[in-house]
Design goal:
By secondary structure, the chain is mostly helical. The protein is 71% helix and 0% strand. The protein starts with 5 loop residues before the first helix and ends with a helix.
Length: 107
Amino acid sequence: MELDTVKANVKFIKESYPKKVRMELVTNLIEAQANKNDEVVENISNLLDQIFSVLLKNLKWSMAESLKDWDYRPIDIMKEAFPKIEKTKWYDMRHKQLIDQLNKIKG
């Protein structure tokens, strides 16, 4: 399967991780953050980082050198595949990294 499209990668993640698992990951992460359970937050964040890394590899994603070439697909795919992930610190950190990179490009 060609995994260089948003649709294909969302499908890949959904087939690899059933809906219940994806929802529980996010729910448990949100709860662990609220309860300040750093060990659980770190474990789930590490798993999400691994999934995100595979996604970046599938997309053959690289850092753009200009704003017009910027590719938001990886973070968009994670949002679609993991409902409510945008409510987590994991998402906030990845989003902040993207904004920081975009600001560097802007100069």
